[in-house]
């Protein structure tokens, strides 16, 4: 499956990292005309209920990326994939390090459950994990870049539509997996935003130049610096950065 962007705004997915549906729907109402869709993740789904969050955001007129990062035995993940393959959901994710059988079960179930199944995306390495954490705490001796590339190949072999990765790995993933293999990039921070707990970050313009298909952006839009203004203004500013990146002299 390929990324079909009707406009540049489709590249931006806003992370609804809030604890209530009221907060989430306030942001959806404020931003739905300025961005391509919204990510519902652990905080909102745990607080408000996964199906309730999906249905509320979908009813409000927006596409939903379900970011629950499924990782369990194949049968359990297949059940979870079936549960989130529903109207309004255009993408959900699983952890690549759950293994090929688990990823295959998610893809097969999603495609069997709907005539228009959502994209199934594999999480490679969390953007909050740097190389010392990977090697010293998790005891994975490979460097982060090569480990991510290995997981991307594994995900593609399992039939996934793409991966979640840092912007720093996008170009290499596209080189080995092809341009049609989707890259969904969190950890995107404009120069005017605070990095927070993200470690492997990049600006929206640089991420787009690298070939990212979707940018998942939370706090820089939902809680922008006072000097920037409202969430809508922050989204518009990022949109302009993306437009400049796609038309500027450095874009190939």
Structural commentary:
The protein has 252 residues and is α/β, with parallel strands linked by helices. The chain has a single domain, classed as Aldolase class I (TIM Barrel). The protein is 45% helix and 15% strand. It contains eleven helices and eight strands. Strands 1-2-3-4-5-6-7-8 form an eight-stranded parallel β-barrel, surrounded by seven helices. Strand 3, helix 4 and strand 4 form a beta-alpha-beta unit. Helix 7 crosses helix 8. The longest helix is centred in the C-terminal third of the chain and has 17 residues. It is globular, with a radius of gyration of 17 Å. 46% of the residues are buried.
Measured between the Cα atoms of the first and last residue, the distance is 23 Å
Quote the average pLDDT: 91
The main sheet orders its strands as: 1-2-3-4-5-6-7-8
Number of helices: 11
What is the CATH architecture term?
Alpha-Beta Barrel
Indicate how many domains the architecture comprises: 1
CATH superfamily, by name, is: Aldolase class I
Classify the beta-strand content into a percent band. 15-25%
Sketch the topology as an H/E string, one letter per element: EHEHHEHEHEHHEHEHEHH
Highest-level CATH class? Alpha Beta
Q: Which structural class is indicated by helix and strand composition?
A: alpha/beta
Q: What's the overall geometry?
A: globular
Spans where pLDDT lies below 50 across 5 or more residues: 1-6
Question: Gyration radius, to the nearest Å?
Answer: 17 Å
**Number of β-strand runs:** 8
Q: In this structure, how is the largest beta sheet organized?
A: 8 strands, parallel, barrel
